[in-house]
Amino acid sequence: MVDLWGLTDKGMVRVQNQDACAFQQKEGYAWAVVCDGMGGAAAGDLASTMARDRYESHMVCLEDPTLYAEEEELMIQAAQAANRAVYLKAGTNRAYAGMGTTLVGALIMGNDLFVVNVGDSRAYRITGGAIRQITRDHSVVEELVQHGALTPEEARRHPQRNLITRALGTTKQVKADLFRETLEEGDAILLCSDGLVNEVTDQEILSEVLAGGTAAEVCHRLLDRALHAGASDNVTVVLFQV
C-alpha cells in the first residue's frame, strides 16, 4: 500500500501561490502531478491550475483499463492535453500572452513507476539510503551544468536559475520526457517545484525522508525547512512512500 501526501505553500516572499498539485490513491495505483506557473500574477496561477486540472481529467482513465493502451502513452497524452489547454487559453487575452507552466507527474502501478516531465519541477527517487534525481531540468543552468560550466551547487544560486527552456503552454506542441523504473519496497518518490530545491539540498531532502514518519509528516518537515530558509518562491511537495 502506497502512502501518498502532498502540499503547496506560497512561501515567505510571494503574494500569490502559482504552484498547483493534485494526487490520488486507489486500489492498484497512485498518481500525482505538480505544476509551477509563470507569466504574471493572474496568468501563472491560471496556467498551473489549468494544466493540473486537464492532466487530472486524463488520469481518470486509470479507472477503466479499456480507455488506454499503455501507461506511458496515457501520461504523455495527459501532458500534451494540458499543454494544449494552456496554449489555447493564452491566445484569448493579452494578459495571458506568454503564460506557461512546468509539469512533473508520477504514476505507480504495482512495482512500476512512470514519470513525465516538462520544465524544471523535479522527481526524485530515494532508495537504498540514497537520493537520485529522476528528471532532468529543462533550464538554462542545467545546460550549463551538463557542459561543465557550473557545478550543481553553483546552479542552485545562479541568477538565471529560474529561466527554463521548455514549458507547457508556450508553444502549440511540447516534448515531454518520460521515465520508467522498477521500484523496491521501502522506496520513496518525491515530486516538487523549484521552490523546494532552491532552499533545501538533496541531502537535506534525503535526511527528512530517512527520518521516517508518514508521507504527510515528511512533507510538512520539508516545507518547514524551505520556510525557515526563506522560501523566496512558492513551495510544493508530494511524496509517495512504497
What does this structure look like?
With about 240 residues, this protein is α+β, with helices and mostly antiparallel strands. The protein has a single domain, classed as PPM-type phosphatase domain (Phosphatase 2c, domain 1), CATH 3.60.40.10. The protein contains 7 helices and 11 strands. The chain has helices spanning about 40-60, 70-90, 140-145, 150-155, 195, 200-210, 215-230; strands spanning about 5-10, 20-25, 30-40, 100, 105-110, 110-120, 120-125, 130-135, 175-180, 190, 235-240. The strands form 2 sheets. Strands 2, 3, 4, 5, 6 and 9 form a 6-stranded antiparallel sheet that branches. Strands 1-11-10-7-8 form a 5-stranded antiparallel sheet. The longest helix is centred in the N-terminal third of the chain and has 20 residues, at about 70-90. It is globular, with a radius of gyration of 17 Å. The protein starts with a strand and ends with a strand. The relative contact order is 0.21.
How do you describe this structure in short?
The chain has 242 residues and is an alpha+beta fold. 33% of the residues lie in helices and 29% in strands. Strands 2, 3, 4, 5, 6 and 9 form a 6-stranded antiparallel sheet that branches. It has a 5-stranded antiparallel sheet with strand order 1-11-10-7-8.
